[in-house]
Amino acid sequence: MSMEDGKKGARPAVDAAAVSRRTLMAAAGCSVALMGLGALKYAGTPAQLRPPGGQDEERLMAACIRCQKCFGACPRRIIVPAKLESGVLSVRTPVLSFDDSYCDWCAEENGGVPLCVSACPTEALHLPPEATAEKTIIGMAKIDQKTCLAFRDTGCRYCYDACPYDAIELRTDDGTNPRPYIIEDRCNGCGACESVCVSLTAGALASSASERAVVIRPIEKA
């Protein structure tokens, strides 16, 4: 199986979404209403993949007014609204989807300063001054060896080639073709590996799978 370079190209920056005062006020009203119904009692809801600066779930849930400015600010369009499956209290809050691209902290578009954080009017997305992409853990990559094409000896290595943090290593087990393994203390959950995984589209080896062989999972809080 011939594999090409899996690195994805940057996408052109887009302007932040214009949010009218009316929309902003409606979003704020919705947030207040949710809090009145007990929104602060979000404990027990599923962990989420949040944009940079949203890793403090308590802060995000208390400050997010669902204005969607971060959605429009993201040049890679990977910030999407949380759906009901994420919990009723999380609906319309920002979560990450790595279907088509990944988070590089706007390195090419804004010099490594996440535009979503800059666009947030309430600091629900907030990064301390010392924060870096390497140290800000969005999630953790997980490989399903049952559906990963590399574990079928196809030679697939898209995820390995795409990882910007050298958080995936290739190992040869008993003379097989190289297979990818996650180095967890290097993975920050940027999503580069997931965005290039072809397990759902390259052949019918994993026809029963409903998600890619490598996905980013949220970090469950203790």
Automatic annotation (TrEMBL):
Q: Which cofactor does it need?
A: [4Fe-4S] cluster
4Fe-4S ferredoxin-type domain boundaries: 55-84, 139-173, 178-208
Q: Does the keyword 4Fe-4S apply?
A: yes
State the source organism's domain of life: Bacteria
Provide this UniProt record's keywords sorted from A to Z: 4Fe-4S, Iron, Iron-sulfur, Metal-binding
Gene3D superfamilies for this protein:
3.30.70.20
**Entry annotated with the keyword Metal-binding:** yes
Cite the GO molecular-function annotations of the record. Answer: 4 iron, 4 sulfur cluster binding; metal ion binding
InterPro entries associated with the record: 4Fe4S_Fe-S-bd, 4Fe4S_Fe_S_CS, PSI_iron-sulfur_center, TAT_signal
A single Pfam family, by name? Fer4_7
Q: Which PANTHER family match?
A: PHOTOSYSTEM I IRON-SULFUR CENTER, PHOTOSYSTEM I IRON-SULFUR CENTER-RELATED
Q: What is this protein called?
A: 4Fe-4S ferredoxin
